[in-house]
UniProtKB/TrEMBL annotation:
Entry keyword annotation includes Transport: yes
Keywords: Amino-acid transport, ATP-binding, Cell membrane, Membrane, Nucleotide-binding, Transport
Matching SUPFAM superfamilies: P-loop containing nucleoside triphosphate hydrolases (SSF52540)
InterPro entries to which the protein is assigned, alphabetical: AAA+_ATPase, ABC_ATPase_HisP-typ, ABC_transporter-like_ATP-bd, ABC_transporter-like_CS, MetN_ABC_transporter-like, P-loop_NTPase
Catalytic activities: a polar amino acid(out) + ATP + H2O = a polar amino acid(in) + ADP + phosphate + H(+)
Domain ABC transporter span(s) in chain numbering: 25-259
Subcellular location per the Swiss-Prot or TrEMBL entry: Cell membrane
Annotated protein name in UniProt: ABC-type polar-amino-acid transporter
GO CC, alphabetical: plasma membrane
Organism: Auraticoccus cholistanensis
EC class of the enzyme, as a word: translocase
Similarity section: Belongs to the ABC transporter superfamily.
Topology versus the membrane: Peripheral membrane protein
């Protein structure tokens, strides 16, 4: 289809950036249990630099656990995960560094309630990245501008709408200059009229070449911005295909069944 076969990047679709050849996030044979529950089963997944992978699948299929495992919020029992050629460290300084390379945006915005919007965005860069406060502030204001909430910089999270808070959460993650951004159902907790303002920010990021792993039920976003759709069911990656192909011609019974319920 539209994928490039050679080393030249394919002409991207309107919402998509070009994908480079080098792998940035590589999972090989990852297995994880919660007690007796085998929640990630032999997960093999390679995400290339600049690629946007949308992860879909039924509730309970392991999508959140996959994100949390990539970010080391969860441990895993076997297999390997590398970010930009580095194995996931167990703990300590190296882990803090790695977490800084992996930005994460959750369904609940998780902003610090007692800090201003600006402080929410400057905290990580000054504490973890050791940026000077003035530099961190300037960069934070640029990011807040980019996500359209710069005029709210001195307010507290509760004074903002859900859509605005989620855009701040995206700015906060970007302030760490991550190599990859993980989004776990970033619009599921939002009122319908706020969903698009968040998806628009994400589409812009995708177009700018950010590497992204996005768990979402927003199929319009998947069609517009994803280079690839990964379908999970029962802890396994069941299908991985370009969006056009996946939506028009899903291969497995489980994917057909899932799409039949949501489309
Ligand atoms: P999804 O995000 O696709 O809905 P999750 O990754 O949240 O799925 O969950 C996958 C499975 O793991 C579910 O059966 C869920 O109940 C279980 N699970 C998730 N987190 C925990 C936990 N901390 N302890 C025990 N079981 C969990
Ligand atoms: Mg989930």
């Amino acid at each position: 289809m539209s994928a490039s076969n050679g080393s030249q990047a394919a002409e991207p679709a309107p919402g998509r950036g070009a994908v480079r050849d080098d792998p940035l996030v590589v999972l090989k044979g990852v297995n994880k249990h919660f007690g007796a529950l085998h929640v990630l089963r032999d997960i093999d997944l390679t995400v290339h630099r600049g690629e946007v992978v949308v992860v879909i699948g039924p509730s309970g299929s392991g999508k959140s656990t996959l994100c949390r495992t990539i970010n080391r919020l969860e441990t895993f029992e076997s297999g390997s995960i590398e970010i930009d050629g580095q194995a996931l460290p167990e703990e300590g300084k190296a882990l803090a560094q790695l977490r800084a390379d992996v930005g994460m945006v959750f369904q609940s915005f998780n902003l610090f309630a007692h800090k201003t919007i600006l402080e929410n965005v400057t905290l990580g860069p000054t504490k973890v990245r050791r940026q000077r406060p003035a530099e961190a502030r300037q960069r934070a204001m640029e990011l807040l501008e980019r996500v359209g909430v710069a005029h709210q910089a001195e307010k507290y999270p509760a004074q903002l709408s859900g859509g605005q808070q989620q855009r701040v959460a995206i700015a906060r993650a970007l302030a760490m200059e991550p190599k990859v951004m993980l989004f776990d159902e970033p619009t599921s907790a939002l009122d319908p009229e706020m969903i698009n303002e968040v998806l628009d920010v994400m589409t812009d990021l995708a177009r700018d070449g950010m590497t992204m792993i996005v768990v979402t039920h927003e199929m319009g976003f998947a069609r517009r911005a994803a280079n690839r759709v990964v379908f999970m069911s029962d802890g396994q990656i069941v299908e991985s295909a370009e969006p056009e192909q996946f939506f028009s011609n899903p291969q497995s019974a489980r994917a057909k069944d899932f799409l039949g319920k949501i489309l």
